[in-house]
UniProtKB/TrEMBL annotation, chains A, B:
Reactions it catalyzes: thymidine + phosphate = 2-deoxy-alpha-D-ribose 1-phosphate + thymine
Keyword tags: Glycosyltransferase, Transferase
Stored Gene3D superfamilies: 1.20.970.50, Nucleoside phosphorylase/phosphoribosyltransferase catalytic domain, Pyrimidine nucleoside phosphorylase-like, C-terminal domain
Organism classification: Bacteria, Pseudomonadati, Pseudomonadota, Alphaproteobacteria, Kordiimonadales
SUPFAM superfamilies in UniProt: Nucleoside phosphorylase/phosphoribosyltransferase catalytic domain, Nucleoside phosphorylase/phosphoribosyltransferase N-terminal domain, Pyrimidine nucleoside phosphorylase C-terminal domain
Organism: Kordiimonas lipolytica
Name used for this protein in its record: Putative thymidine phosphorylase
Length: 508, 508
């Protein structure tokens, strides 16, 4: 705290006043346009400035204030910036021009077709992690890497750069197994089931998951409706020590923190390119200390990966980059023609997961089968069972209740097991005519779930009532829309009205 | 204005309170996180919402406020959004989810290599102009068009789209002549001189110019230190009617308004690709009603266009697209190896322009010669003089004072002629050793001028004291740095210290 005697020391800086504005984007510093510092330093609106407080600093974008919200010599910060600096009301900050962002030249080079070389990507990722990139600059980096796809060497360099800027976990024993799905297939929520099965068989699986990038739910979003996932490293270690596994959100532990920054912008743009995908997936696994990894790559005309050929190509890149880091990986190319299970959205998918783990009569079989395949693969890779015996072992672990018991124990260790919430607002979507369901558009059904509010609205989403191949009567229920608010329900309804063929029914 | 009796009508909307925050970026709406509308509609921070007031609307990004700056039922808008909606304190706005930005799918397609087709670019440009694109989305569009350069058909489509969303001027007589420099050459400020010469010869030249994109000054920035350039259409028409010409900022008249939105982000990214350049240049000229256009394309190792080959390619694209719109164009490929004139920065360039127009003894000859070439070209194209006689006519017009008289008259009609401002803070940069000046780096000398504050700080910039080929002694003055603030001077000095070879001197 400053005392009046110390105030003189603030003459070159300015004093913080909390306005409490949360931008969730670039850090923002609010200053009077006519304040002495802005005039002396030439800080115009949208300028990027370095803000120092104690031994911490951030780079922020200037927004000017023309009213008496702030007086001369006062400034405010957006909430995330305030927290990162550990600021208190009245603290004295100092402002300066940030160093020129030299690494942006490399991004421009990439845009015009020059490959990243040497430590280009290390420097870019470090600058990004230190908050030197504005959202607009991050968007240019992401777009450049999508339009000019990264080659093998660039993918390895980006993966290494992303590992290097974050924490790196070590575990007391090996093997440490992990699992990842490339995504794009709504409802394909196998991770909690796989973790429960392999941990019940004694394998170490300290699973950290992402939130959704462009989908209606990520594993972390789904697990969050069942238990606490926002665990720090000490908590993760406690849970893993006691249960051999966890199901935590990865973002809280600074594994590949650059990835979270990239994901925020990728999500806004709905872009997720192969090179960044490989680096995103593998940097998290390597940083998390995995030694054995199984990858699920669903492919289909409306999945993220469109064809078998593309799936093979992605598989080769993932296995190649993994090998460069000594990570043993296998990939399962799976059917990606329609959603998995019934629910699409965090809580609705959590219901499917519980249903499979509890071996309920009407548990979705496709979700169960996929989880068994992936868990079986890990059990074999890690040497728990002989080659070919993995699926049978996984099935037995589910059927005799050991998997659910392990799942409960993991959740209890993370803070308790809750039942998924349900929504107030529902609407049925019915078949316009009778016939056979011939196609389900994964992307557009996922869009409906997102318009309904998923993943931010945990209970929102879509509940599927038919599969490809089913025969339906006119007026039969195809799917239910679940929303937490009427605004979102109306918005999704408008989209559904414009897209009557999301589930295509053809007369026999 | 609302009265207390009308307040009930606001129950579905919220009331505006002015906070006076100027973001100069995306429109922002400030709302309490816990307000009824945010909860009912699921508006999280960073959500994009449609804001309606009367018959106007904008799309804004949500920033949440957690303090009592706003009460439940209150919201605020960033200043530009406030102005666009014509808002007053206490006005009642309504909020809704904006329509899905379908055109962003086309941008994603482009990122992955699909060309824009049909009306793709019309829809993108319309959405952009209506403010439906966030800065991050605009950055992705710009980056995609740079990484996947636009082909001929796309360039024509983008040009047409940019013309169509703006105003289009018509003039009482033809020919209507125009001039454009591709840029990248500091100090190449020929436009005011060319306009004065051709208008003095009776040609109609209603010149509208841009502000700087990535350079230390655009023609509008330079003219702004001499006269008022922010003219509306009626004012432009008055000036042109009385003087046959104007030197106005184009942004005020909604000629190709999309261009200004793109330029803001291009400037932040320091990107300016061929396809967008062609559409940007020609859309403004076509919308301004030009019939004859001369283009200056300087090329050199550190100019925007790096080689004669690239200059020829760009020339072919510009002339091809111009022809598609019936615009007669010629291009002059000019020497781009070193800055033109002495000043770099708005006021310093204005001094050079005045010096040439006033035929002062020490007026920069290179600037004069270039202006004569371009003006001569227009005089010939428009049929004022026979082929080959343009340069002589232009020279005579300068030398007998008619050009300066016309320039004065244009400035007086626009609001007066001021002398350029001078700075308080200067610093000399001297030769470390004697020898011959063999190279001047246009990009880095422009960077110095920008670090000194140009173009926002009008008087800031660089004053060149040597040209390539000059012999200098050790300690001789190479250039002066001019700054309005000590902060900017210090910042530029640090850059100059790290870059001692911006002007390369080699021992004879």
């Amino acid at each position: 705290m400053t005392t009046s005697g110390e105030e003189g020391a603030c003459h070159l800086g300015i004093r913080l006043k909390r306005l409490g504005i949360n931008s969730r984007s670039d850090h923002i510093i609010y200053m009077r346009e006519d304040c002495a510092v802005c005039r002396a330093e030439g800080f115009s609106a949208q300028a990027r400035v370095r803000v120092d407080l104690g031994d911490r600093f951030i780079i922020a974008t200037v927004h000017h204030v023309s009213t008496d919200l702030l007086s001369d010599g006062e400034a405010s910060l957006s909430e995330r910036a305030w927290a990162l600096l550990g600021a208190s009301e009245g603290d004295c900050i100092s402002l300066s021009h940030p160093a020129l962002l030299e690494s942006l030249r490399k991004v421009r080079g990439k845009i015009y077709g020059r490959a990243f070389e040497g430590d280009d990507l290390s420097i870019i990722v470090r600058d990004l992690t230190e908050g030197r990139y504005s959202d607009v600059e991050t968007a240019a980096f992401i777009t450049a890497c999508s339009a000019r796809d990264l080659d093998g060497a660039e993918r390895i360099a980006l993966t290494k750069a992303m590992v290097d800027v974050g924490d790196r976990l070590e575990w007391p024993r090996t093997p440490v197994v992990d699992k990842h799905c490339i995504g794009g297939l709504p409802g394909n929520r196998t991770t909690p089931i796989v973790v429960a099965i392999v941990a019940a068989n004694g394998l170490l699986m300290p699973k950290t998951s992402s939130r959704a990038i462009t989908s209606p739910a990520g594993t972390a979003d789904t697990m969050e409706v069942l238990t606490k996932v926002d665990l720090d490293l000490a908590a993760i270690r406690r849970v893993v020590e006691s249960e051999g596994a966890c199901l935590a959100w990865g973002g809280a532990v600074r594994l590949s923190p650059a990835d979270d920054l990239l994901i925020r912008i990728e999500r806004a743009l709905d872009i997720d390119s192969d090179g960044q995908l490989v680096a995103s997936v593998l940097s998290k696994k390597i940083a998390a200390g995995a030694t054995h990894l199984v990858l699920d790559i669903p492919y289909g005309p409306t999945a993220k990966v469109r064809s078998l050929e593309a799936a093979e190509k992605l598989k080769a890149s993932l296995l190649g980059v993994a090998a460069a880091f000594g990570l043993k990986a296998q990939a399962v190319l799976s059917d990606g023609t329609e959603p998995v299970g019934r629910g699409i959205g965090p809580a609705l998918e959590a219901r499917d997961v519980l249903s499979v783990l509890r071996c309920e009569q009407d548990a979705p079989e496709d979700l169960r089968d996929r989880a068994i395949t992936l868990a079986g693969c890990l059990l074999e890779m890690a040497g728990c069972v002989d080659a070919g015996a993995g699926a049978a072992c996984a099935t037995a672990t589910l059927d005799d209740g050991r998997a659910f018991k392990k799942f409960e124990a993991i959740c209890m260790a993370q803070g308790g097991l809750a039942e998924p919430p349900v929504v107030k607002h529902r609407r049925a979507v019915e078949a316009a005519k009778g016939g056979r369901v011939v196609r389900i558009d994964n992307r557009r059904i996922a869009q409906v779930a997102k318009l309904l509010g998923a993943p931010d609205a945990k209970a929102a989403g879509v509940l599927m009532r038919v599969c490809v191949g089913d025969s339906v009567e006119a007026g039969a229920l195809l799917y239910e829309m679940h929303a937490e608010t009427t605004g979102e329900l109306a918005y999704a309804l408008a989209y559904v009205d414009q897209n009557p063929d999301i589930i295509a029914v053809e007369v026999n």
